[in-house]
Every structure is written in C-alpha cells, then in structure tokens.
Specification:
It is a single chain. The chain is about 90% helix and about 0% strand. By secondary structure, it is mainly alpha-helical. The chain has one domain. The longest helix is centred in the last third of the chain and has 39 residues. The protein is rod-shaped and about 60 Å long.
C-alpha cells in the first residue's frame, strides 16, 4: 500500500465521521463537507491503487527483460 492509498483511506474515514456528526447535530454544511471528503478520499485511493499496479507491472516487465 502506498502513501496515496493510505491518505485516501484516511480521508474517506474522516468524511464518514463528518457526515455522521453532521447528521447527529443537524449540521448540513458539515455533512456535505464529509461527503466531499469521502469522495476525494476515494479518488485518491483509486489513484494510489492504479499507481501501485502500474509500478508492479513495470517491475514484472523489467524482470522479464532481464531474463
């Protein structure tokens, strides 16, 4: 797991917590901010996963070329 994946997961968790707290306190702005944080975290996590998979593919390709 790389840095983008970890930060993305953290942002998603933070977003869910903000949404829940916004619901409990009837704070629509906080709830909406949580939705945005969760979406941003999902994008960042997806980017991190893609970056890791591309790196793994390039490593495999380099190993095949060396043989």
């Amino acid at each position: 797991m790389n840095r983008d994946e970890m930060e993305g997961k953290g942002d998603k968790l933070k977003g869910r917590a903000k949404q829940a707290w916004g619901d409990i306190t009837n704070n629509e702005r906080l709830h909406d901010e949580g939705v945005a944080d969760e979406a941003s975290g999902s994008v960042q996590e997806g980017f991190g996963k893609t970056r890791r998979k591309v790196g793994e593919t390039l490593d495999d390709l380099a190993d095949r070329i060396k043989k």
